[in-house]
Amino acid sequence: QVQLVQSGAEVKKPGASVKISCKSSGYTFTSHFMHWVRQAPGQGLEWMGIINPSGDSTTYAQKFQGRVTMTRDTSTSTDYLELSSLRYEDTAVYYCARDVSAVTSWWFDPWGQGTLVTVSS
Amino acid sequence: SSELTQDPAASVALGQTIRITCQGDSLRTFYASWYQQKPGQAPVLVIYGKNNRPSGIPDRFSGSNSGNTASLTITGAQAEDEADYYCNCRDSSAFLWVFGGGTKLTVL
Hints:
Chain A is mainly β. Chain A contains no helices and eleven strands. Chain A has strands at 3-6, 10-12, 18-25, 34-39, 45-51, 58-60, 68-73, 78-83, 92-102, 105-111, 115-119. Chain A binds chain B through residues 35, 37, 44-47, 49-50, 59, 61-62, 95, 97, 100, 102, 104-114, and chain B through 1, 29-31, 33, 35, 37, 42-45, 48-50, 54, 84, 86, 88, 90, 95-102.
């Protein structure tokens, strides 16, 4: 079955960077885009960006431009999200989610289990 | 950038029907997808496209669309349907996506 498995929880200091991984299995990795979504404690879902199947093109939400980098390693079917210059408000659960699409329709399925990033001094 | 608007909260009596709505300009161009999220869990896709359910999602979940509004309907709500529900859609003019603010559904 299609599965996305993310790396474990991280604790970082303000100003540091964090890199989260998302390993895919059960489907052709290079046939799908991947989204990253985050959720601050008690808050809603926030779309961060998307990487294309070959890994050579990304689109980031304006809020994160300049601080976020999405990459992928097609040899290991793994996506990475790096967020730099961490602030307290970056404390959140970060999810990867596979993109699936049809004409005029896109959806995220499945989702990784989430990675908690805590920014604390 | 586009926005999607959802009511923050809704409630339904056990076994009754509830419609959760999502409004936004991008819904005039693209279909929304809907996600159910229970506490401490990752979101799960429940509706996508015009009105499609992934395997394993009960048929009491359905979707509909009209103008700038997408709706998720639960017909005969069950206790296990108590959760947060989020809509999502691609922006109509840019390669980016947006989530609605979410609706917290209580089953009474």
